[in-house]
Amino acid sequence: MTLEEIIKPENQIYGKTPLLTETPMHYCPGCSHGVVHKLIAEVIEEMNIADKTVGIAPVGCAVFAYNYIDIDWQEAAHGRAPALATAVKRLNPENCVFTYQGDGDLAAIGTAETIHACNRGENIAIFFINNGIYGMTGGQMAPTTLEGMKTATCPNGRDVSMEGYPLKISEMLALLDGTCYVTRQAVHTAASTVRAKKAIRKALENSMASKGTSIVEVVSTCNSGWKMTPHQANKWMVENMFPAYPLGDIKDR
Amino acid sequence: MMEEIKLMKGNEAVAEAAIRCGCDGYFGYPITPQSEILETLMALEPWKTTGMVVLQAESETASINMVYGGAGCGKKVMTSSSSPGISLMQEGLSYIAGAELPCVVVNVTRGGPGLGTIQPSQADYFQTVKGGGHGDYKLITLAPASVQEMADHTVLAFDLAFKYRNPVMVLSDGIIGQMMEKVQLPPYQPRLTDEQVREQCPWATTGKHGRKQQNVITSLELRSEEMEKINNRLQEKYNQVEQNEVRFEEYFCDDAEYLITAFGSCARICQKTIEILRSEGIKAGLLRPITLYPFPTEAIAKFAKQVKGILSVELNAGQMVEDVRLAVNGVTPVEFYGRQGGMTPTPDEVVKALKSKLIK
């Protein structure tokens, strides 16, 4: 049997969603961005809302998110994605609107925009990739960097007496009356990926149903920034990130 | 509704004109002396009549980025602020100019630097017409000198913004924003429907709605050779703006031997100066730039050959005078007179300044 005879469309049980473009992703091997992009694209495809979805891309590693998912996108300034999303959704309420942001973008320079969009209950989904480090700029300390974690700007490990504590922003956002769904997920195993996909779907459904703001935090690896192999990074994430950022729903109403 | 004549503040006129010209969204933050714009919009509740979205943002930074988001959807969106708030908006303005999006920003200026004063000033001239944010870009800048023009320029600003896909600044000040005058308000135009927006702004991120190509609003281009092309294209657009959109007003200029240049509220003061000088037999005229960018360079160059001297009068330490000097190019003396920090000159003060600096 030839390969063509085996791989027939009628035998195919899983494939790349057409919403993911052919553009090769620039992410480092082992990085979670590619998986999360794939999940978002699949959910949009499954919900059949590609024609009315607008994504807001961040500054940072995912700055080119619009090259990979074939929907309308706006590229925001650093941290400002929730402000853009606010206007996009309010002016076109029938659209499904989401932001895609890293921890530096969402939890540092964009803290104000994040908190206030959530507090207003903007009917948007926020996908928040938390790898505890500034990936694109070369691995500097983020608000989410763990205590003792070494980065380019805390080479001896984050000293909380000097740099403060890791920012548990999802727990903070869950306190706000405007948020309807806050969850923390990961994509390091097949099972966790399935759960993350369900969370992404719920967040986008909430945007369509105008239920308030949904936040899906995905605790992620940064192999390059952490200076680890993908395997080491996943293990380190489970042992160190998950205790600080426990997975599961924080709020669902 | 038809046109309507009302007595109102400049700030209120902006709000009324915005609703009437089919504005889709206003995103702003209170700051003196322009808070009446947001207050008026909130009181008029246009979301009940035209469907216009009005939102008080958490900051000027958020406001301008909401404007970015809305403009990216092809909607008629605007914000307003005053000098320190406009400083906070410079990041967003650079992005909006870079992404070539249409929007209107009203700056009812106050004295600076820093927290400064809440009294009128024209010290934001440089920040407005020379860029303000990072990168080579230009804001088309309108300078109203009356409450009527606050309304008219709000409407015109949207037209220019969409014509050139460029942010347009209405550069007013605390006098024009706060003073009351009779104003003829424009008739209501309906807001564009979503279908009209998709047709007129094929670049807008409205959701693809059957469109094959995705639309992406961005100012990012990492390839230098491509980024240079984008910059060259922007400069070509600005050349078109400079050729087509220069606006100014002449007041007793035909036989003038002395020319005063002044904009906005300062030009109103200088009108009286011209009357005083003329009553004394001094042939003086006033050239009032209505567009500060594009600047009426050619008109001033023409008068430079006719007059014995030019006096630029401004509510700052001398900013527009630099553009006047560039236009004049040494052909005739150019002097400056200004008051700062919220102080405004009297017409007599300007008479004295012109005599001492140019006639002697």
UniProtKB/TrEMBL annotation, chain A:
For this UniProt record, give its keywords in alphabetical order, as a comma-separated list: Oxidoreductase
Pfam families noted in UniProt: TPP_enzyme_C (PF02775)
Q: Which InterPro entries match?
A: 2-oxoacid:Fd_oxidoreductase, THDP-binding, TPP_enzyme_TPP-bd
Q: Which residues form the Thiamine pyrophosphate enzyme TPP-binding domain?
A: 67-218
Q: Which GO terms describe its molecular function?
A: oxidoreductase activity, acting on the aldehyde or oxo group of donors, iron-sulfur protein as acceptor; thiamine pyrophosphate binding
Q: Name one GO biological process term.
A: small molecule metabolic process
Keyword Transport appears in the UniProt entry: no
Q: Which protein is depicted?
A: 2-oxoglutarate ferredoxin oxidoreductase subunit beta
- Annotated organism of origin: Paludibacter jiangxiensis
